[in-house]
Amino acid sequence: MPTDTLPNPEKSPERSSGELIRLEQVTKRFGDNTVLDHLDFSVDAGKHVTLIGPSGSGKTTILRLLMTLLKPDEGTITVDGQKLFPATEKERREVRKQIGMVFQQFNLFPNMSVLRNITEAPVTVLGMSKDEAVERAKGLLDMVGLADKCDARPAQLSGGQQQRVAIARALAMRPKVLLLDEVTSALDPELVAGVLDLLRDIARSTDITMLCVTHEMNFARDISDQVLMFDSGRVIEAGSPEKIFSEPEHDRTREFLSAVL
Ligand SMILES: Nc1ncnc2c1ncn2[C@@H]1O[C@H](COP(=O)(O)OP(=O)(O)OP(=O)(O)O)[C@@H](O)[C@H]1O
């Protein structure tokens, strides 16, 4: 695939080390429900980390905190050394520019063309010229296999195509971090493999840092440098995909994997 429009087309060794995301003692409650309980973890630049665990264990909540769609009750979150929480709104906005997210339900703007869905944020948030944004968007649409859909509206596309547009839209901001939240859960089964293959390509050919919540264990095995097993808002086991999937140490990990594999 053409890589000139990708966020970090060449894997640069200096970008592939050091901590990019850090959560320290993060607690999130919804009423009496403590969803994240003094959670600590970090993700190094350029790494692909997958969160697995039972439904309701707090995986999506972590991504929503990083997107600043939620606020933690306690703890600190930093991205590339910059404060996300606690921070001023201005500081948060700056950090947010470095984070792209692809949601389960695509979340495209229904009244905008495919091209405009992708150019909107680079122009309005990053101040990119319209011409440059259009050129980049066309390159990304080519990469995701939808070069001929610039003028289509999202409703005219299949779920798989809409998710490809959502991936292109996230990458158009050249984020350092890409958050993927069960991106194939809403797709018809025959469309899942194509979207996962696209993400495998992106994982292989860029040095973008990925934090991924997925129930697709083969995908997790393929792209992950590290897998974190969650239970009740805590990381109970972490390791390489080989270790977690082949030799899990924790009973809860074994139970979870035997239910989903
Ligand atoms: N906005 C909210 N208001 C109240 N409770 C919430 C809210 N968002 C999440 N929760 C609760 O927080 C808990 C964790 O939810 P979260 O979506 O993070 O889990 P998850 O591990 O991603 O689950 P799944 O795999 O099913 O998506 C659940 O008990 C959920 O009901």
TrEMBL record:
Select a single GO molecular function from the record's annotations and give it. ABC-type amino acid transporter activity
| InterPro entries found in the cross-reference section | AAA+_ATPase, ABC_ATPase_HisP-typ, ABC_transporter-like_ATP-bd, ABC_transporter-like_CS, Ectoine_EhuA, MetN_ABC_transporter-like, P-loop_NTPase
Any Pfam family hit: ABC_tran
As for membrane topology, the entry says: Peripheral membrane protein
Q: Which domain of life is it from?
A: Bacteria
For this UniProt record, the keywords arranged alphabetically read as follows:
Amino-acid transport, ATP-binding, Cell membrane, Membrane, Nucleotide-binding, Transport
Name its cellular compartments.
Answer: Cell membrane
Task: Supply the SUPFAM superfamilies for this chain.
Answer: P-loop containing nucleoside triphosphate hydrolases (SSF52540)
The residue ranges of the ABC transporter domain are: 21-257
Q: A GO CC term?
A: plasma membrane
Residues passing through the membrane, by range: none
Q: Which family does it belong to?
A: Belongs to the ABC transporter superfamily.
**Protein name, per record:** Ectoine/hydroxyectoine ABC transporter ATP-binding protein EhuA
